[in-house]
Amino acid sequence: MWKYVKKLEYPVNITKKDLNMAKSMMAQYGGPDSELGAALRYLNQRYTMPDEKGFALLTDIGTEELAHFEMIATMIQQLMKGATVEELKENNLSGYYTQHDHATFPIDTSGVPFTASYIEATGNYRADLESDMAAEQRARVTYEKLINQTDDPDVIAPLNFLRQREIVHYNRFKELRDYYLNKFRG
Amino acid sequence: MYNYYNYPQNNNFEGENFKHINYQNDNLYNPYQGLIRGNLFKNLYQPYKNEKPYEIKPMNDQAKMLTDLDSLEFAMIDLSLYLDVNPDDKRALDLYNKYRIENEELLKLYQDQFGPLLLNSDVLNNTPWMWDNRPWPWEN
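YS: structure for the whole thing
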């Protein structure tokens, strides 16, 4: 089960409206390499890991991704706060406004809704962990492209935090993959 | 509480909140320095474009205590991922428990003073029900 902690993993306080940035941030909310995808990927893969190390690591990283999903939602919500219909229209968000208004909704930057086909669960530890390593790298690159689009420190600080978490997760998955390859060799 | 932060790139701020605690470890950042980097492990830290980490400047006592909690909980998260794969590392295990105990004490102090972060908090033994008190984490 899960318990809610009434705080964010890392503080987010964005006061400058930036609709273009809000739209770009959707990549990490409902895109193929989004935090939502990461959480669902690991929390589904954990059941078929070979032993307790995999059970623990995929449960814990999957749980942290849910906290990141909450951070991204907070950022999008604050970036859009107070935007008028006119401003949303100017930023090509009239379609979004029509269907979702100021709600957060997991779509990608082009408006494609999140789908389960973004995640993998093959039942094979090597296939799953290597796809997890690649997913962490893709998310890291996405964060770099997001950082390139803003000079607001209130936006960059949490993006830097999230980018760095991808690097740590990549290394933990790699450690686990190497441990299993060694354990099951031959 | 979340409207009391900003992120100046002030390079000589050494984590004032943690000056009273000696967390000497050659391989790890202290909890606050880890939080602002998103990484407790010095060997894994790779800043983008060689940027310096953004300092978190809490602007009142509540935000200050919450930053300490964020730091300790972050250190616990990062150490737990490491321990999942390296369960025999005694130094990491001892450090995890040091932070865990510190976190437990600070969490109680924070909740007594500023309201519940968890549904098992003692402060929920008050009328009216405090869980729904604002601000919620996404509010600025």
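YS: worth flagging: Chain B has one domain: 2-124.
IM: good catch. Also Residues 2-124 of chain B form one domain.
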